[in-house]
Amino acid sequence: MAHAAQLSQPPAEASPARLKRDLHRALLRKRVAALALIAPLAIFLMLTFVVPIAALLMRAVENPEIAATLPRTVAALSAWDRLGAPSDAAYAALAADLDAARRDNTGGALARRINAELPGARSVVMKTMRAMPLLDAEGRPLAGTAVRPALVALDEEWGRPAFWQVIAKNASPYSPHYLLASVDLRQDAFGHVYRADPEQSVYTQIFGRTFWISLVVTVCALLTAYPLAYWLSTMTERRANLLMILVLIPFWTSILVRIAAWIVLLQSEGLVNQALMALGLTRAPLELLFNRLGVYISMTHILLPFMILPLYSVMKSIPPTYVRAAVSLGSHPFAAFWRVYVPQTYPGIGAGALLVFILALGYYITPALLGGPNEQMVSYYVAYFTNVTINWGMACALGALLFCATLALYGVYRRFAKIDVSM
Fold it and tell me: Which Gene Ontology BP annotations are present (predicted)?
């Protein structure tokens, strides 16, 4: 009996607790193996995508020039009311900081930063820094109340509150100055935000121009790609693949080569103008270069494959029997196409339009080579502030706003895509 009872009991290793523990270990080993497989890709994306974007956002709000170069002056101005002239201690601190900046060769960044808010300040700062240290007639360093008249004698701007207000306002190593400036907003001496003068409000127009050009290019690409993608979807697979190669050949060609080709085609003596005049459509060459029309034509051509591919992939999966069934039930062919076929292509339209619009937002080479001064987009000014004026804060602020706009567009697309799926 005892032997039979022992046989009826399950073995210890087959107990539920042991099975649960073994299952957990097996799942854990699978998760570790999966993470090990994707770890190189995750690290690569982190280093090439996440880290640069984080650095971009940080540089857009960083403001280290004044806080790092004028620490004594910032401390001396902490109790200043920002109305009249500061105390003698602030003048003495400024002289000491500028003397240190002269020795360390760090005054250039300081002068550029103050000049960004106060035009003409760079020459004042550099001239004052070159005169450091301040000495009396006997060659001894000035101190106390003697520093103020010496600085004012060097340049009368030091006797006005404007310079000191800029220093006091930017005492923190972080500031929204560049982000506000990129949307034509300013801060006064007390931190109040106000709209810039219409003569100085340029970035709002630049962003509006960027979005408008991107929208027009997206619409043109959609109107051109939709019938072409539909035509390809009605062909046999062999012929469709052959024509798709012709669509993708420009996609595999360098952008600079395509832009150079459009310059040849659109110039006054180019093939397009010659063809128009030969057909009698125009009597004189049209201005197709260095204006908005040339930018539209070139960008639409370059971005056309990005619209065709999503449309073609969606149209290829739509059975043609749907439209034929609607026509057989008495619907007009155009009404059947518009009410039955087109709604099924909305996912391809949305994906292609989003892709083309986002790519168009960041275009730089095409407007720079084919457009005039009134066709330059945000990316042109990002390059300008990066390479010409060396103003990384402004360049990163413009890039950060463009990045946020892209995320917002993607969020809107996801929202409508979910609604469309739920319907």
Answer: transmembrane transport
